[in-house]
Amino acid sequence: MLESLQFIYAPQIVNGLSIGVAVVLMALGLTIIFGLLDVINMSHGEFYAAGAFISVSLMAMGVSFWFCLLLVPMILVPIGFAMERLLIQKVFHYKDRHILTLLLTFGVAMVLEDAYKIIWGANPIKPSAPISGASELLGVMFPNYRLFLMGFGALLIFSVWALIYKTQLGAIVRASAFDKDMSSSLGIPVMRVYALTFALGVALAGLAGVLLAPIYSVFPTMGRDFILMAFSVVIVGGLGSIKGAVIAGILLTQLQSISSLYISPVWSDPLVFTVMVLVLMFKPSGLYGGMKNA
Amino acid sequence: MKKQFETKKIAVAVALCLGASLVSAQPGPIKIGVVTPLSGTYTPIGEQVKMGLDLAAREINAAGGINGRKINLIYEDEEANPAVATQKAEKLFQVEKVDFLTGTVNSGSTLAVGQVAERNNKLIATSVSFADSITGDKCSPNVFRVNARAGMQSAALAAWVDKEIPKSNIFFIGPDYEMGRSTVSAFKRASTEKGAKDVGEVFAPLDNKDYSPYFGQVRAAKPNVIYTSVAGNDTVRLFSQMEEYGLNKGVTLVGASGTVTSQNMGAIGKSANGFVTGVGYSPKLDNPANKKFVADFQKAYNKLPDLYGADSYGLLYFYKAAVEKAKSTETDKVRTAMDDLSWQTPQGTKKMRAGDHQAMQDMFAVRVENGEFNIVGRVPSDQAIGPDVCTRF
After folding, report:
1. Which residues contact A22 (CB under 8 A, 6 or more apart)?
2. Is residue B104 less than 8 Å (CB to CB) from chain A?
3. Quick check: A53 and A122 in contact, CB under 8 A?
4. What are the UniProt keywords, alphabetically (chain A) (predicted)?
């Protein structure tokens, strides 16, 4: 019993956590963009892929992985800013903008996916992990890179939370989301705040791409990998809530991880979606309300 | 006089028109539809299919075509999805009026497209799908397979495993669909017959991103051999994650021939070293036809062919031989010609077994060493093919 706890359950929980951090990193950008702009960004996964592809190219040019962590989000911020300004704001003022922005970002996703195939080719690329080896904890092996991912991811998630809830900049962002007209009459450049927040979400997706590329490899359709899970996490956690995304992300991935010990892996996805359906039925606002209510 | 001249002119014009219509009644190029994954996890496989077919088509067309008709390949992306594949196949049969169809990779797609072919009274062949059922209990008079099926690959691999690691404990990891189930059950049967022990199995969804949640089950089973039939990008993740967790230490990795290919080997890197598979082709095969094929392939694409490229290349020569023997592209005549047909491929002479439409060929055990598939064992075609279990025709 103790042995199975040590060699089967403990590693399983840690594996689940490392996937959980990955999923939360994906869900974070989604939930911020939704919480503020009311935009469901269907191209989020493709920006995750963008981060991975750009980092692979930079590393091929000799840039170190650690510098990529800084550089890739900086490259993606202006791209995200431009996309919000040039595309999303064009349809933002229509009455049915939920559908319009969803279709728009879905279209962008398809264009990006094909662009990756043309630029980088369809074959997978696998960057080597910048931290190799494994550590032994209580007789169980844990890959060092995954341990780093968990630590760094937790730090990142905390920083984003602190940025939005504990700084003046975050207060401006929240105010713009809460009442657009009031904020702009107080002199806040609301449109620029929207574009910057969208860019922050895109940069977070890209950063997740850099971080996860050494584990999951890089190929044009990789954006589809996390996107369903990330959307479920955002829905279960409550659209727009960072705390909700973190808690739901960890809960759902643990559910997947532990359940796969007992049931066939194909059933773990339906299990997650069942939870999502139940949440939608009984508490449609999710576990925690949106950013606007915070 | 003038009138006579006019009549003559009209007669010539009519004759010309008739001639023209006769010429247009002469068949144009032979259209071959190719429904293959050009996106998704099986893209690397679809690429080899395309390279093999294109190379063979160029050669055949340069040498005058089939019965004087050029080959025209029409590609459609099946996304390794049976639902998409059937739509694309239907379109190729109905709109493009293709004479023949090939390219399906996902075994589910091959089975589904086979039914579309039956409805349209056309023939298809797969040069990739492994699932035994395609030429077994779900065989179709309209479906042919020119590549080695799962059972044949297993025979070669099980013989090697039994020789190297007798009485091994084997854990099975397969993708959760027709091909995965089929390859795992085929290898399980072949290896347990030789005394190996089945210590557990797990089937992961296609396009699975993280295999580490299943490693708990693998660890608990304490295998010394792990068999897997995941393919494409999935292999890259499985192998590198196994390496990450040290799961491959003290374990011999074996698997289906589609698991490690020249397309994904670069991304897998050193984790692929030592992987052994049963396969119907290796670029290292030592015969003149293969040497020429490998050289031409490398010249055209600057990379080595793998089994998909080689079998897809051989497929067009199979179709050519059948149409030339039938002197027609009509379905019934070509089918009769294909039965028991022998033809030349880079793997040597293959023979199409009439009873189940499964090609017979020698099988090899190959080991991946620093990016090369070295041949470590061989099973002759009659021992590898297994019984004909098709009862539909």
Report:
1. A149, A153, A208, A211, A212, A215, A226
2. no
3. no
4. Amino-acid transport, Cell membrane, Membrane, Transmembrane, Transmembrane helix, Transport
- Are A128 and B269 in contact (CB < 8 Å)? yes
Residue B187 class from Cβ within 10 Å (0-12 exposed, 13-18 middle, 19+ buried)?
buried
How far apart are alpha carbons B10 and A290 in whole angstroms? 84
**HSE of B269 in the Cβ direction (CA atoms, 13 Å)?**
16
Domain definitions of chain B by residue range: 30-148+283-361, 151-279
Cβ–Cβ under 8 Å, residues A48 and A22: no
Class of domain B30-148+283-361: alpha beta
B204 CA: distance to closest CA in chain A (Å): 6
pLDDT surpassing 80 at residue A58:
yes
Amino acid residing at B58: R
Q: Are B134 and B114 spatial neighbours (Cβ–Cβ below 8 Å)?
A: yes
Say which residue the tokens 């109905």 belong to.
B94
The CATH class of B151-279 is alpha beta
B19: contact with A, CB 8 A cutoff: no
Which tokens is A165 given? 């809830």
pTM of the shown model: 0.79
Q: What are the φ and ψ backbone dihedral angles of A136, each rounded to 5 degrees? A: -100, 120
Between chain A and chain B, the number of residue pairs with CB atoms below 8 A apart is 108
Of B216, B220, B269, the CB nearest to A126: B269
ipTM for the predicted complex comes to: 0.82
For position B18, what pLDDT does the model report?
52
- Report how far residue A16's alpha carbon sits from residue B214's, in angstroms, rounded to the nearest whole number: 11
A151 phi and psi angles, rounded to 5 deg:
-65, -50
Judged by CB atoms closer than 8 Å, whether chains meet at B39 and A217 is answered as no
Q: Determine contact: A10 vs chain B, CB below 8 A.
A: no
pLDDT digits (tens, 9 = 90+) for A89-144: 988 888 888 899 999 999 999 999 999 999 998 888 988 888 888 888 777 778 89
Chain A CB contacts of B240 below 8 Å = 126, 215, 217
Strand order in the sheet with B143-145: B71-77, B30-36, B100-102, B123-126, B143-145, B358-360, B348-353, B342-345
Type of residue at A235: I
Contact status, residue B32 vs residue B99, Cβ threshold 8 Å: yes
pLDDT by residue for chain B (393 residues), tens only, comes to: 455 556 666 656 555 555 554 444 456 899 999 999 988 778 889 999 999 999 999 999 999 999 999 999 999 999 888 999 999 999 999 999 999 999 999 999 999 999 999 999 999 999 999 899 999 999 999 999 999 998 898 888 999 999 999 999 999 999 998 889 988 998 999 999 999 999 999 999 888 888 988 888 888 899 999 999 998 889 999 999 998 888 888 899 999 988 998 778 888 988 899 999 999 999 999 999 999 999 999 999 998 899 999 999 999 999 999 999 999 999 999 999 999 999 999 999 999 999 999 999 999 999 999 888 899 988 899 888 888 999 988
Selecting from B176, B209, B219 the residue whose C-beta is nearest the C-beta of A216 gives B209
Q: Any idea which residue has 């085929």 for tokens?
A: B186
Q: Do domains B30-148+283-361 and B151-279 have the same CATH topology?
A: yes
DSSP class of A2: H
Pinpoint the alpha helices (H) of chain A. Answer: 2-4, 10-37, 44-60, 65-83, 89-91, 97-120, 144-166, 168-178, 180-185, 190-216, 224-237, 242-262, 268-282
Task: Return the residue of B nearest to A261 by Cα.
Answer: B217
